[in-house]
Structures are given as C-alpha cells and as structure tokens.
Amino acid sequence: MPAITVDDLTTLDRVRGPGLGDQPRPVLQVTTAPQGYEGEGFPVRRAFAGIDLARLDPFIMMDQMGEVEYAPGEPKGTAWHPHRGFETVTYIIDGTFDHHDSHGGGGTITNGDTQWMTAGSGLLHIEAPPEWLVQSGGLFHGLQLWVNLPRDAKMSTPRYQDIRSGEVQLLTSADAGALVRVIAGTVDGHAGPGSTYTPMALVHASLEPGARLDLPWDVDFNALVYVLNGDGTVGEEGRPLRTGQAAVLGAGDYLTVSAAGRQESRSPRLDVVVLGGRPIREPLAWAGPFVMNTKAEVMEAYQAFQRGSFGHPTS
C-alpha cells in the first residue's frame, strides 16, 4: 500500500490519549458493504449501504474502488457524467487516475493523492486510468466519497483541490503503532490540507498488528469507521470489524480502533478510513448524480444537463 508511509513512527507527533472524563463513542451499527461494478466496469464496494442517511449526514455515499490487480488492457474508468449539489472526494491509495471536467479543471492523482471536486452548480466530469496504465495493467485501489453541500452552497462555483500525498498531516497513536493520515479537517489540533464547505474530518489510519488507536474526535461530528483491509475491533466494547465493513459510532469525545494480533499476509496491517462531520440537517433529494434539497431542484438539474448548461467536455 504505497499511500504515504513513514519508516519510524516514533518521530511523529502523537495524538493524546483519553483524558479524565472523556467519553468513548459506542458502536451503534456494523454493516457489510455489498460488491458490484461502477463506470466502465471497475469493482466497487458500497461502503455505507444499509446505513440510514440521517446517520451519514453530511455524507451521502462512499465507494471503495478495488483493490484489484488489472492485467494489460483491463484498467477501467468512467465516461463523461454530470454532478451538481455536492462534492466528490477521490483518494487514490494504489494506482493512477486522470480526471478532467467541462470547466477545464483536472489533473493526475496517484499513490496517496486526493482530488477534491466541488461540483456546486454543475459540471461534466470524467475519471480514467492513463493510457500507459491501460496498456501495462497494475494494481488499483482507492475511495470516492460524496459530501453533501448545505443549501446556500449547492449552486457555488465548481472548484478543484489537488491534495498531494506529501501535504497530508501525519500523526501516530499513543503506542506509536498506528500511522494517522489527516487528509481534511482537524484531529487533536492538527489540521489536514483539505478545505471543506461542511465542517468535517477525513483520516486514513494504518495499524500494526496488536496496535490500538484512541482518536480524539470533535464532539459536534458524527463518526464512521470503514475497514479497507485487515481485521480488528472498534469501540471500547471490542466489536469485531473486518475488510469491507463499516461501523457507525455514537456520541463521545474519542473513538477506538484496535488491530488483531495476527493479520493475513496479503494485508499485513489494519487499514481504516475514519470520517465524520457536522450534520447539515436539511431536506435531501438525491437522484443519480444530483443531490439537492427538493425534487423540483433535481428535475431542474436534469433539465439543465439536457440543455447542455453544464458545459461540454474540453478533452
């Protein structure tokens, strides 16, 4: 897993352990992601399937893309497609993706990079592996998270943030057994590079076998833990959690994730994504690539797309 790593975790700042009176977040629900295909046929796990949208707020959905080892000629992406009313966050752990939009934005993201796209008022967008990767094949693994926008930001001007792996805030756990990558938001006073409309935090943590991570978490945020690979437990109660499973946590000051003492050889560590945000608590009307507040606004988005108001592909 070439997402940014550190040889000596003891050189990093450590997140503080729970203080007197700090309350652990209990586990409310554990779900298992169904598997399917997206775009031109790349495999995905629907990470939050089965979780009520009220518990996800301000998030809408998340796909784990891969992990898959493509043979030459097999790598796949998406065709041009529209978005309006939310943000897409694409985090590439292994592999390379090119992305372009009808406003002329885009670029290439690879091992540990994040492309944060605010669709806002609407654009057309494409994501695909570069031609050299299609020809050679190779490992591909990543995430795409959809973050809702509040009503007053849904029609904002589209924008990109290209967050390089070297910009991510790196921390370690109290036992120096976990690498904590803060991509967006602030964790224990340490801010990640991602700028968000909706107050939130996004973390990718890698735990060595037997390690424990007590992660301080904003009391105003909800909290979700999703396992990219490996086996472990979540919560003080030690609820088992494995690859492709998500846990919804309740209120509290910190959350706990622990890695099993033995991991399979293909996944020598427990890798989890931890995310949470301040709920928007506004009406949600979601249909396909449009996330608005009312059905009428969704219909208007479809009409704008059909009229060509989202622009035309530039490449």
From TrEMBL:
InterPro entries: Pirin, Pirin_C_dom, Pirin_N_dom, RmlC-like_jellyroll, RmlC_Cupin_sf. It comes from the Bacteria. Residues 203-311 form the Pirin C-terminal domain. Residues 43-147 form the Pirin N-terminal domain. Belongs to the pirin family. This is Pirin family protein. It comes from Nocardioides kribbensis. The lineage of its organism: Bacteria, Bacillati, Actinomycetota, Actinomycetes, Propionibacteriales.
